[in-house]
Amino acid sequence: MQWYLKNLYYGLDMLKWAVEKNGYTISEKLELKDLQSVHPSLGIGFVAAQDIKEDEELVTFSKQNVLCLSNSELAKIPEVVALPGWAALLLTMAYENSKPDSFWRPYLDVFPSTDRITSPFFWEEEKKKKLLSGTVLESNQDYKEINDLWKNSIDPIKQQYPDLFSNVSFDDYARMAAVMLAYSFDTKKPATKEEKDNSKEISNKSPTSKEIEENGESKKEEDGDDDDDDDRSEEEDSDVESEYDPEQFEKSMCPVADMFNGDDELCNIRLYDLEDRLTMIACRDIKAGEQVWNTYGEIDNSELFRKYGFTKPKGTPYDFVLIKGEDWLSEYIKKIGQEEAEERLEMLLYKEVLSNPEGDFTFSADDLDYTGICLSFVMMEKKGKVSHVPKKTEIQPKHYRKLLKVIENRLQMYPKLEEPKTLDEENAVVLVNKEKNILELLYDNVKDNLAQKTPSKRRKTEEED
């Protein structure tokens, strides 16, 4: 049996379990189908079996029926509770998968095997260098962070509680990490009895998508990210997965809800996080036979590939390219020293010329503003102690020429990829070409600006006459 047909079989089995054993309500207007023929990265997903009207409620489930630490017996173990939320969820997932008779078995069986994970999570460094050199993802260390976490935190817990975790392996823990990146949600913790008593009475009637949007309860992305970072937990922030304030949110796996493929432009259904339940509501009319799409949110191609294992060939509106501090700082450090360079970077950061102390700059097709990096060149060239950030008027043609050289060097960092023969190579080509396109746009803008600020010899002679 081909892997995607097997997954479809397990998926249908999981839907039956979700309804009969786990309290899920699923509309008869949804049909689970094999979408492999549409694109290899889609696998299985939902299509409309009948016409669906905007605001129809298609999937509903209680927060008690999601896979998370608080719904697990592991919530009684202090060492597990002390882990970052996402790490605790991974251990919960791996623990349940280590039990043949786990209540969550029909759901766990739907998770992709390691060889079916299309993200670069398991790529060897050699492959990463060959296909992703120069890109935003070239220095990604998701797998290393999981490996370090296992050695420093998970394995000691495993040794302390052998009766519980003897069958939990690192390989499965790592696989769960790749699965979590693609399928997890940040769900609001249910209100306490006291909070409920102090709040207005909750109606049993499902609100419309517009009403929920107005109340700010829409889950805009599958993994819970949205534009408001104020609720993020800085202590538990990770390169693998960021999360909301753990006092208010919990990293969770939501059966059925995570089986909808996502596309920000095609999105026709949203997951809404209500007080005691989660519900998926159509946000526009959907015709019979049309695929039902959730959204991954406003994220760029590199993040789509890192988490979900696919790219959009035409790119996304959020694609960007990175010029790192190491791409332009080294020659200045040789002249003024590391300590002085760091002090100047701090000043640039304080004045918001920089967004991080490493001296990195990001550019996108819609934001090619290179004033910041040119001001940084001016700052680093100053002699002696510097007490303030230079003005824009101090930027000279030589600084534009410097930036052109930096861009030329950056373009040389990308691999020379031939016609792609595999899905991995296809995704890499999309990422590399998009980043190069943005750098080339930036190069042309700088070059045009330099031409305007540098008079030709003929024009200069005429002005002198």
UniProtKB/TrEMBL annotation:
Residues 223-247 have a biased composition (Acidic residues). GO terms for biological process: methylation; negative regulation of cytoplasmic translational initiation in response to stress. Its main location: nucleus. It is found in: Nucleus. Gene3D superfamilies: set domain protein methyltransferase, domain 1. Its EC number is 2.1.1.-. Pfam families: SET (PF00856). GO terms for cellular component: nucleus. Residues 28-297 form the SET domain. Residues 190-222 have a biased composition (Basic and acidic residues). Residues 190-248 are annotated as: Disordered. GO terms for molecular function: protein-lysine N-methyltransferase activity. The keyword Transferase applies. InterPro entries: N-lys_methylase_SETD6, SET_dom, SET_dom_sf, SETD3_SETD6_MTase, SETD6_SET. It is an enzyme of class 2 (transferase). SUPFAM superfamilies: SET domain. Keywords: Methyltransferase, Nucleus, S-adenosyl-L-methionine, Transferase. S-adenosyl-L-methionine-dependent protein-lysine N-methyltransferase that monomethylates 60S ribosomal protein L42. PANTHER family: RIBOSOMAL LYSINE N-METHYLTRANSFERASE 4 (PTHR13271:SF142), UNCHARACTERIZED PUTATIVE METHYLTRANSFERASE (PTHR13271). Belongs to the class V-like SAM-binding methyltransferase superfamily. Histone-lysine methyltransferase family. SETD6 subfamily. This is Ribosomal lysine N-methyltransferase 4. The lineage of its organism: Eukaryota, Fungi, Dikarya, Ascomycota, Taphrinomycotina.
